[in-house]
Amino acid sequence: MEIGKHGNALRWQVAGDPSAIDPAAWDALLARQRTPTPFMRHAYLAALHSSGSAVPGTGWSPRFLLLWDGDELAAACPMYVKAHSYGEYVFDWAWANAYAEHGLRYYPKALVAVPFTPVPGSRLLARDAAARAALLQALIAYCREHQLSSLHVLYGDEDDLAACDAAGLMQREQIQFHWKNEKPAPDGVPAQPLQPFTSFDDFLASLSQDKRKKIRQERKRVADAGVRFRWARGADIAAEDWAFFYRCYERTYLEHGNAPYLTPAFFARMATEMAEDWVLFVAEHEGDPIACSLIAVRAGGCRAGDQNGLESPPPVAYGRYWGALARVDRLHFEACYYQPIEWCIAHGVVRFEGGAQGEHKMARALMPVSTPSAHWLAHPAFADAVERFLERESEGIGHYVEHLERRSPFRR
Fold first, then answer.
1. Beta bridge partners of 1
2. Could you report the per-residue pLDDT of 315-327, keeping only the tens digit for each?
3. Nearest 5°: phi and psi at 78?
4. I need a labelling partner for 178 at 20 to 30 A (CA). Which of 102, 267, 337, 351 fits?
5. Are 319 and 352 in contact, with CB atoms under 8 Å apart?
């Protein structure tokens, strides 16, 4: 634990274990943010640590930074000192290689992020813009003091990015694919409030004929193979369902030659402490489970956003994990996209975020969305070189998005 003084009479503290932080104070601060997600809740971050998933032994050394104004938690963020770039989904391997080629050390570096979770949302939790700016100054001061090569704020929201821009951090864009529960406005029709879909068929009717036909064919293949789905949320997810989910999750990683990032103990914590944040879709064949997918859900209308003049955030779903113990043609698309989208329509969820990468998601009406990050490099020459690289990369991303939007799956 390190305590010092930093501007505006705010006292800053570094916690090496999230369990040392008052959960109520952390979650109260999260509730005031523009874009809260379940993944920034204290229970989620603490579970990553206590389960052995994101700990020094796996290359994630927690250094959670807290700013106090007397007894009030004015700002906070999850920071990790990293010895590698795994589990981040914002790729800087080329930067690390360039440092090594010049005889310089890129690791350790500092990361403000949720481990293994490429979900956009609030990262720099703060009571106001001034506290957020002070938090960033403290982060950079910590990096300088401990001779870290760099600071990376991943998947932050617009308040985070505005603070990072004001502090001189470089911004980077990547693309994810998100589905929105709103009927597209017909061409030539004046702007009006968009309406949600009333059913999966209503959603299909918004697509071009070829995309609509493809989705129906894919769903039919799964149904004709005798596969049926059931879903469960929260306390209705039985212990044997969680156990089956982990078998599927683990197999998916092992089939790709990697050990899974998250341990069984992590999901055990989710089942007991954050059950209502999860929905499980289980595929069954002749009564036996053969595959499943897991999504997280942010409930709507329960945040204290209006304290800052912000509306309470609407319900959002996040595609997270999937796995299968049997091979069925097109089962992945049914489990990971069509079942969650159908569930979102039935439950009034406004958006389904499909996770990192995946241009193929556009054929399922998940459209490109920019997901920014912000970066500070201590070495001036490398900071200049990376800034020039990011300018070129940003231009390329812009052209890529234009190309994607011309391939919209929706009816013209």
1. none
2. 999 999 999 999 9
3. -85, 115
4. 267
5. yes
